[in-house]
Amino acid sequence: DQGTDETELSLNLPLKSPAGRARDRELAALTEQLQETDRLRRRLYYSGLLREVLWSRRLSATRERFLERKIELLRDLEARQRLLMKAEAASLYGVLAVRQERLHAQIDQREQQRETQRWDHRYQQLTGLGRVPGDADITEAAPPGQLEPGQHPDMQMLTLSWERQKRVIVAGAGRNTPWNVALTARQFDSPLFEENQYGLTVEIPLAFLDLVPEARRGEWRQSAQNYWRAHDELQAALNDNWQRLLSERAFLVEKQALLAEAVDTGKQLVDQLERLRTSNEIGAELWLRRAMDAVDTEADAAITAVLIGQNRAMLRQAVGIPL
Fold first, then answer.
1. Residue 283 half-sphere exposure, CB side, CA atoms within 13 Å?
2. Distances in Å between the alpha carbon of 233 and those of 73, 149, 240?
3. What is the pLDDT of residues 148-183, one digit of tens each?
4. What is the C-alpha to C-alpha distance for residues 119 and 295, in angstroms, rounded to an integer?
5. By percentage, how much of the chain surpasses pLDDT 70?
6. 3-class SS at 81?
7. To the nearest whole percent, how much of the chain has pLDDT over 90?
8. Are 167 and 23 in contact (CB under 8 A)?
9. Which residue has the higher pLDDT, 195 or 113?
C-alpha cells in the first residue's frame, strides 16, 4: 500500500474578546454595588419598622402617664367631696360626678396600657430583646436640610439595576462576540516519509463594531421606558413624603409653642378657681372641669413633644438614613 495516512486533532477554545472581558468586570462591580445597596435598603426597611414601634410605644406610654396623673387627681378630689358630704357641706351629687369621671379615666388607662403592651410585644418580635429603650436611647440627630432623591437606597437600587440591565442587553453587540482559538495537529504517515504539522488559528468575528441587533434595541427602548417611569414615580413619592413631613414639623413646632402658653394659663386658672371655690355644687363641678382641662393640655403638650421627635426620626427615614 503506497497511500498516505493522515491523522488530525483539532481543539477549539472560545476566548472572550477584550470588550467582553471589560463588560464582565463592569457587571461584577455592579453586582457587588447592588448587593451592598440591597443590604442598606433592607437595613433602612427594618429601621422604619423599629422607628414606628419605638415612637408609637413612647406616645402610648406618655398618654398612659397623664391618665394616671388624672386618676390620682380625681381620687384626691373624690376624697375631699366625701369629707364635704359627711360635713353636710355638699351632696352626694358631687361625689358621684367625680367618681364617674374617675371611672372613665381608668377605662381609658386600661385601654392605653393594652396599647403599650402591644408595642412592647411588637418590639420583642422585631429585636428579640425584652427591654424597650428609654427616651434618651431613641432620640435621633436632626435630619439633613434637604432631600437628595438620588442618594436614597431605593433610588440607588433602581438606578444600579438599570445600569446592570443595560450592560446585559449590549452583551449581544458585535464586539462582545467571543473569539475562537483553534489548535490543530496533523500527522502524515506514508512509506516514503512521516510529517507532523501544528497550527494555531484565531477567528475574530468581523462584527467587531458596537452593533446591537434590532431585537435587543427594542428590548433596550422598553426597558428604558420602564426605568424612567419607575424613576419618576419613586422620585415623586419621596418628594411628597418629604414635603408632608416638613409641613407636619412646622405645624407641630407652632402647636408646641401655643400649648406651652396654654399650659401656663391653665395652671393659673386652676389656682384662681381654687381660691374662689366654695362648697356649692356648681363651683365644685366648674373646678373639676378646669382641672381636667389643665391636665389634658399638659398631656397634649407632652404628646406634641413626642410627635416632634417622631417627625425628626421619620425625616431621617425619608432621606434614607437607617438606625
1. 12
2. 53, 11, 11
3. 999 999 999 999 999 998 888 776 655 667 777 778
4. 25
5. 87
6. helix
7. 50
8. yes
9. 113
Q: Which helix (H) or strand (E) holds 183?
A: strand 179-189
Task: Please give the single-letter amino acid code of residue 21.
Answer: R
Q: Which amino acid is at 81?
A: Q
Inter-residue contact 53 to 126 (CB < 8 Å): yes
For 194, other C-beta atoms within 10 Å of its C-beta total 11
Q: Strand pairing of 194-203 and 5-15?
A: unpaired
> In angstroms, rounded to a whole number, what is the distance separating the alpha carbons of residues 140 and 251?
20
> 16-20, 206-210, 239-243: lowest mean pLDDT where?
206-210
Interhelix angle 18-86/92-127, nearest 10 degrees? 160
CA angle 298, 300, 302 (to 5 degrees): 70
DSSP string spanning 7-48? EEEEEEEEE--HHHHHHHHHHHHHHHHHHHHHHHHHHHHHHH
Please, what's the b/e burial string for 32-61 (b: 16 or more CB within 10 A of its CB; e: otherwise)?
ebbeebeebbeebeebbebbbbbbbbbbbb
Side chain identity at residue 119, one-letter code: W
3-class state of residue 121 by DSSP? helix
Amino acid identity, position 62: T
Question: What mean pLDDT do residues 74-78 have?
Answer: 90
Determine whether 119 is exposed, middle or buried from the number of CB atoms within 10 Å of its CB (0-12, 13-18, 19+): buried
The DSSP letter of residue 173 is S
Distance CA 145, CA 7 (A): 78
The Cβ of residue 311 has, within 10 Å, a number of other Cβ atoms equal to 20
